[in-house]
Write a structure and sequence with these properties.
Length: 474
């Protein structure tokens, strides 16, 4: 077997001592393997104990402490480990020199204030560093990344919930508090519940508050005393408020029923219909021109992407710089062929981005002063603030007039913008509405077929209500 394999693959012959003689005739420097530098043993962070203080400090004034000087912490190993972690975090996220120095100084101050060196830092102590103009938010992200953060902050929804339920009777307030704790933290025991966001909790509570206050005024001191007739009596007559209130009551009473806090769910088998569908309205052309002609690079780029290509706020937030290439923007669900005005504005924005944050490691296309020091996307609030109006309005304007230009063809809208058929029908159903046509003629004049070239020339340069033959027939 071996001879067959050698015959098929060939053989390599060597003369005895030939390699050794060549080495002796041409001696070279002896190469030795470089020893790796001695690395200090990593400090165990965080420590498993915490020294309790006899008199915990309250209301620390770091400005006064800065005037007198902070003491040096007697924990060199912990300080070296924190400094190494801060340097690695600054290099990974491309932080500027001033921000990196602020991280190092903030960690030294926090370590000097600690009673137990090496224990997790409290978030409330980190936020005090804002009085010294130190980067508190990047510090929170760094400490959370290295598992050195004790987040003792109270969510803003907690005091809000206590305030809105302060006037309720004690039994009803206790039942609502049980529901609030379940929704905020969730439950891993049967019946299991998924933790909800504070925004969702606020929305459900606001929807149910009118009914809860009405029942309290009528002498109902507990949710156990609520019947089906009580629910039907407080529901509004109109479709949308009725659906919202019933939804809020169901999301409160159903988990309490499953936890056996109340005996029955009075909202069961109550049908209230669907919320009234809203009609999208166009944006005035003067507002569109004002936004597109703005010299601010972020606003011009954001508005161009929404006005020309109807990107959602989520798509704007999650768009990556690597997805912008070859005159296209590659999104998870579709690929957008960018119009020429959009390319020009994106080029100007990229120049602004590179000059403002040349060392950032954030992969997202749009950055803010806060997200440039991390890797997370910008918020919906930032997008709307930069645009000066909700991005949803600009997107609806683009979809609405695409429906007008195509004669109400839902397939065209689905192919261009990635909408479902049901979402596209919301815009195509407005094509034959006389009131909407009168609104367009009164405020914006007749619009061209919304090709990128025609839209650019009409919105940016053309006078209101006037179209050339090439624009109207394209």
């Amino acid at each position: 077997m071996v001879l067959d394999e050698v015959s098929r693959c060939g053989q390599q012959l060597y003369f005895a001592d030939m390699l050794r003689r060549v080495r002796l005739m041409t001696p070279g420097p002896v190469r030795r393997r470089a020893e790796p530098p001695a690395m200090p043993s990593p400090s165990p962070l965080p420590v498993k104990h915490r020294q309790l203080a006899l008199y915990p400090p309250h209301g620390r004034d770091l400005r006064r402490a800065q005037e007198r000087g902070f003491p040096e912490a007697d924990a060199p190993e912990v300080a070296a480990a924190l400094k190494a972690a801060a340097d690695a975090y600054a290099r990974r996220h491309g932080l500027e020199y001033a921000t990196a120095q602020g991280l190092d100084r903030g960690l030294r101050i926090l370590l000097a204030l600690q009673d137990t060196p090496g224990a997790p830092f409290r978030a409330s102590d980190v936020l005090l560093l804002r009085d010294l103009h130190l980067p508190a938010r990047p510090l929170l992200k760094l400490l959370s990344h290295i598992d050195m953060l004790d987040d003792d902050r109270i969510p803003s929804v907690v005091p809000w919930f206590r305030e809105v339920t302060a006037d309720f009777p004690e039994p009803m307030a206790a039942e609502l508090n049980t529901w609030f704790e379940l929704m905020l933290a969730g439950s891993t025991t049967a019946p299991r519940l998924k933790a909800r966001s504070p925004r969702w909790i606020r929305r459900m509570m606001r929807s149910a508050l009118p009914a809860l206050r009405t029942w309290t005024a009528r002498g109902k001191d507990s949710l156990r005393a609520i019947t089906r007739d009580d629910v039907l009596d407080v529901l509004p007559d109109s479709a949308t408020p009725r659906a919202n209130m019933l939804q809020g009551l169901r999301h409160i009473l159903r988990p309490l029923k499953r936890r056996r806090i109340i005996f029955t769910d009075p909202t069961a088998r109550i049908f209230c219909g669907m919320p009234t569908a809203t009609i999208p309205l166009p944006v005035e052309v003067t507002d569109l021109r004002q936004i597109l002609q703005d010299q601010t690079a972020p606003r011009a780029a954001l508005s161009a992407l929404v006005i020309f290509h109807a990107l959602t706020s989520r798509e704007l937030r999650t768009a990556l710089t690597t997805g912008l290439r070859d005159g296209r923007l590659f999104l998870p669900n579709r690929t957008v062929l960018l119009a020429d005005p959009v390319r020009d504005r994106l080029t100007a924005y990229l120049d602004h981005r590179n000059s403002r944050w040349p060392r950032t490691a954030n992969p997202h296309l749009f950055l803010s002063q806060t997200t440039a020091c991390g890797v997370e996307p910008v918020s919906h609030v930032w997008v709307n603030d930069v645009l000066g109006m909700p991005a949803r309005r600009l997107r609806e304007d683009r979809l609405l007039h695409e429906a007008e230009a195509t004669g109400g063809d839902p397939r065209r809208i689905c192919d261009l913008f990635g909408l479902t058929v049901g979402a596209a029908l919301r815009y195509t159903s407005t094509v034959d509405q006389a009131g909407l046509v009168d609104y367009n003629l009164r405020n914006a004049g007749p619009r061209p077929r919304l090709t990128p070239t025609g839209l650019a020339e009409w919105v940016l340069d053309g006078p209101e209500g006037s179209l050339s033959d090439s624009e109207s027939t394209r």
